[in-house]
Amino acid sequence: MFALSPLPSAQLFVAAALLAAPLVPLTAAFFAGRLVSYTIYVTAASAAKHSLGSIIKTSFSSALGLAVQLAMLAGLLALLRVDLARILTGRVSRRASKSHADRVPTTARHPDRQDRPAKLTQPPTSPADSIPKPQEQ
């Protein structure tokens, strides 16, 4: 499977090392398979170049093709400027604090600020830790 597919080969060799498989025959078989698969890829690319080369060349050199390429590059640069970690962390913390505020009993809230839950002495380490436990009496 790994020899005839474009999948990365690192997993194959890690599995072989974990199983203590002999690496010399495995490596020889792997390279023989890759030689066959890469020959098939080069042959297919050469055939595609001869049949689709002029179509691709005209589509990428036309004004519309260039405009689409520039728009895609601008979109890629805009995507790189977005701080996804901050956005995802902000959403998670807002959800966690909102759900935590819904679960805190009203007796545990600040007397002067009824809209916020009481401050915890230690920050919770996981969402399960932020759920208040019933008090034993």
Q: Give the strand tally.
A: 0
Mean pLDDT: 76
H/E series, N to C?
HHHH
Number of domains: 2
Show the helix and strand layout:
Elements: H1 10-18, H2 23-61, H3 63-81, H4 84-103
Helix pairs in contact: 2-3
Provide a concise account of the structure shown.
By secondary structure, this protein is an all-alpha fold. It has helices at 10-18, 23-61, 63-81, 84-103. The chain is built from 4 helices and no strands.
Task: Characterize the structure shown.
The protein has 2 domains: 60 residues, no CATH class; 43 residues. It contains 4 helices and no strands. The termini are far apart. The relative contact order is 0.05.
Q: Key terms for this structure?
A:
single chain; 137 residues; mainly alpha; 4 helices
